TrEMBL record:
This is AcrR family transcriptional regulator. Signal peptide: none annotated. Gene3D superfamilies: Tetracycline Repressor, domain 2 (1.10.357.10). SUPFAM superfamilies: Homeodomain-like, Tetracyclin repressor-like, C-terminal domain. It comes from the Bacteria. Residues 36-55 bind DNA. Keywords: DNA-binding, Transcription, Transcription regulation. Residues 15-73 form the HTH tetR-type domain.
Length: 200
């Protein structure tokens, strides 16, 4: 029968093992979105059985790696200055968001291959909420459009960021150009529309 001291030690060992696996998954999938489970297990210093004991499917492991990356990214985004004109704040937020996407484009590609798009969006509650609040402020300032649903606007921005990551990963867009292109795409899309066919 296990002693009371043994159980906490096993839990601590399991937590350390999970942390190593998630860290290895971030590293391996960040370098190659098609990285094999064997490669991730080897990088984590564990066997396949141990890895599958914590993450029964590839999708669960990819999701854990993405959540861990998003948690780290949230700290960066929380430091972005969103005061002042909402248009300038959106530019700063997009540039910071893009830098995070650029750093983990391969990981995002792995997530897109393993997880439904809706699930990926669900895993971004902090960034999504921050962007929604900024858009509403811009709408109150009269600089952002109000003729389209908020969920649509946020979804379009999400797809632009992920699409840019795919283009960079495929070598069709230089990483140094992606931030500028994202801002040039998103800001006009968000601009206040004076009519269904035009803007100001």
């Amino acid at each position: 029968m296990a002693t009371a001291d043994a159980r906490p030690r096993r839990r601590a060992d399991a937590e350390r093992s999970i942390a190593r696996i998630v860290s290895a998954a971030r590293q391996c999938l960040g370098a190659d979105p098609d990285a094999r489970i064997d490669d991730i297990a080897r990088a984590a210093g564990v066997g396949r059985m141990t890895l599958y004991g914590h993450f029964p499917s590839r999708a669960e492991l990819v999701e854990a790696a993405l959540v861990d990356a998003l948690r780290a990214g949230e700290q960066t985004l929380a430091a972005v200055d969103l005061t002042g004109d909402a248009r300038d704040a959106v530019t700063r937020l997009l540039e910071s968001s893009w830098s995070l996407v650029a750093e983990s484009s391969a990981l995002l590609s792995a997530a897109q291959n393993a997880l439904p798009p809706a699930r990926i969006l669900e895993l971004h509650p902090g960034p999504v909420q921050r962007f929604e609040e900024l858009l509403r402020r811009g709408q109150d300032q009269g600089v952002f459009r109000t003729d389209l649903p908020m969920t649509w606007l946020v979804g379009v921005v999400h797809h632009v960021l992920n699409g840019a990551a795919e283009e960079v990963h495929a070598g069709r867009v230089e990483p140094a150009d992606a931030g500028r292109m994202i801002v040039a795409t998103v800001r006009p899309m968000l601009a206040f529309a004076s009519s269904p066919t035009g803007g100001v």
